[in-house]
Q: What sequence folds into this?
């Protein structure tokens, strides 16, 4: 499976970096875009661009069709029950803020509890911190087992009758471990809480079915799954979305506006104020087409093979520290967080960059998780299906030079 | 980008050196400097008497560039007047921003000249200037 050249579909991966073939290992931050996605965006702006839902003329009708088709395509991709349960946003961060500000602010009462995990990205942490502070609610954390998976004891004990919202990532953007979301949803529902699932790091890598998970809200970003930047998704159960107040106000989200009163539009328009990103939606459709044609199982299989291959080789590099790599591998996606002994992650990233290898270094927008792990920062290599064993070899060869550049012995 | 133009032997040595990395016993001023985007954090301490920096040291965490830049800065300002330290900080930042390129004019920066090539690496400029900005806040 790994012998095939999937990179041929991705023009940017044909480029050289610092005079060397580009080894792109920052897919957790954003993925590269295939020709078909770039063409879909170009086609939209070349042939169909107009403001959707507005004009009674052919181009606007076409733009509306493209946009609404994207909603149906997205609904089927994650198996939502209704297409109006799909709200387009600019990214997962906006989706999470929408939930926190609309659902959170309007339902939380003083003394209520919101439960999140310590492995959350800041986008599923800071909005809850803020909303809890505003409403006098308490923010509680599910911590980790030694192997990086969520603490079973915390899942059992922290979700109580006081819990009103549980917000949890399906896959941590640093540890790459798949959390037991279905089990958490069951516990939360039994306690009367709603569950918000951050799918930013799961939807691009594993098959997701929101009805099977029974998630109340589910969010993800297009750009981490081959789409252009600037298109994101919020899925919410119909009854919840209907009961929630709007988040952003303005054009297209209304039925009637009077001087002192407004009737809001029904779903999904109620949550889509202003001109939407139709070009991004066209790109998202092309991305979903690409991934479904490729097969999500195959994506997961390739990443698993790459992780296993890399971890075997990393075991022979005693100066490398790994995070989240002691767990069983069948619940790990293609993310390897690591540090080089004595060397700061930013220096590691710079030295790898000089050898044409792109990795992320820093706190990965998850400072509470790093503090919990006792780290200031880490490096992160994150794979996608177009990466190869040769990429892993080039990354590890570059990594073996890092300590020498800074004058440390092997 | 040539790695050895950035991670020179001098930079690597300073980044590993503990000579200037310790708390001061009798600091007259203490200032924290942070790069929120990368989490680097240093605490710079000076012992100033009659307008002269009698001693200086730092603690904290950061990459090789920020640690080396801080260590080199401390070597340069120790024993100098506050006025001269201000002048050096100004000169260093102008070198990094490429406002001054003339080697003769930059000569006073001595070992800090080794950081000149950082201006070719926009992603790392903030690492090199952290300690100098921190110094500017307290003198």
A:
């Amino acid at each position: 499976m790994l012998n095939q050249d999937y990179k041929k579909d991705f023009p940017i991966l044909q480029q050289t970096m610092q005079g060397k073939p580009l080894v792109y290992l920052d897919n957790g931050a954003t993925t590269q875009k295939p020709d078909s996605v770039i063409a879909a965006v170009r086609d939209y702006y070349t042939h169909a661009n107009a403001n959707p839902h507005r004009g009674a003329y052919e181009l606007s009708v076409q733009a509306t069709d493209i946009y609404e088709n994207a909603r149906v395509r997205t609904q089927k991709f994650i198996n939502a029950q209704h297409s109006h349960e799909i709200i387009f946003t600019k990214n997962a961060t906006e989706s999470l803020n929408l939930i926190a500000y609309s659902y959170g602010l309007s339902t939380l009462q003083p003394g209520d509890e919101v439960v999140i995990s310590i492995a959350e990205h800041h986008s599923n942490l800071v909005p809850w911190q803020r909303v809890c502070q505003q409403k006098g609610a308490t923010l509680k954390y599910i911590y980790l087992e030694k192997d990086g998976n969520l603490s079973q004891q915390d899942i059992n004990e922290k979700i109580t009758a006081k819990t009103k919202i549980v917000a949890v990532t399906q896959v941590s953007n640093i540890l790459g471990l798949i959390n037991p979301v279905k089990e958490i949803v069951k516990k939360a529902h039994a306690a009367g809480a709603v569950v918000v699932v951050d799918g930013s790091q799961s939807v691009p890598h594993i098959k997701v079915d929101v009805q099977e998970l029974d998630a109340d809200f589910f969010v993800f970003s297009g750009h981490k799954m081959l789409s252009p930047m600037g298109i994101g998704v919020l899925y919410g159960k119909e009854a919840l979305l209907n009961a929630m107040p709007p988040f952003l106000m303005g054009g297209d989200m209304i039925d009637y506006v009077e001087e002192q009163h407004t009737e809001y539009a029904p779903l999904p328009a109620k949550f889509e104020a202003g001109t939407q990103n139709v070009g991004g939606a066209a790109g998202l459709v092309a991305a979903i087409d690409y991934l479904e044609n490729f097969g999500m199982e195959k994506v997961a299989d390739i990443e698993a093979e790459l992780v296993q291959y890399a971890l075997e080789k990393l075991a022979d590099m005693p100066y490398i520290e790994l995070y989240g790599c002691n767990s069983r591998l069948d619940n790990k996606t293609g993310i390897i967080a690591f540090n080089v002994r004595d060397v700061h992650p930013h220096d590691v990233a710079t030295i790898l960059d000089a050898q044409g290898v792109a990795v992320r270094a820093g706190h990965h927008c998850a400072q509470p998780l790093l503090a919990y792990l006792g780290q200031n920062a880490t490096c992160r290599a994150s794979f996608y299906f177009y990466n190869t064993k040769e990429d892993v070899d080039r990354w590890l060869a570059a990594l073996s030079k890092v300590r020498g550049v800074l004058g440390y012995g092997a | 980008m040539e790695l050895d133009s950035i991670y020179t032997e001098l930079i690597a040595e300073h980044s590993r050196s503990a000579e200037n990395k310790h708390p001061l016993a009798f600091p007259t001023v203490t200032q924290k400097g942070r790069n929120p985007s990368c989490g680097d954090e240093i605490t710079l301490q000076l012992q100033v008497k009659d307008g002269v920096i009698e001693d200086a040291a730092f603690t904290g965490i950061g990459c090789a560039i920020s640690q080396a830049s801080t260590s080199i800065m401390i070597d340069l300002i120790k024993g100098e007047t506050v006025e001269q330290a201000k002048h050096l900080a100004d000169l260093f930042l102008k070198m990094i921003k490429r406002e001054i390129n003339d080697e003769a004019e930059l000569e006073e920066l001595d070992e800090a000249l080794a950081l000149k090539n950082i201006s070719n690496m926009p992603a790392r400029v903030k690492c090199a200037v952290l300690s100098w900005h921190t110094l500017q806040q307290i003198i």
The mean pLDDT of chain B is 94. Chain B is about 40% helix and 20% strand.
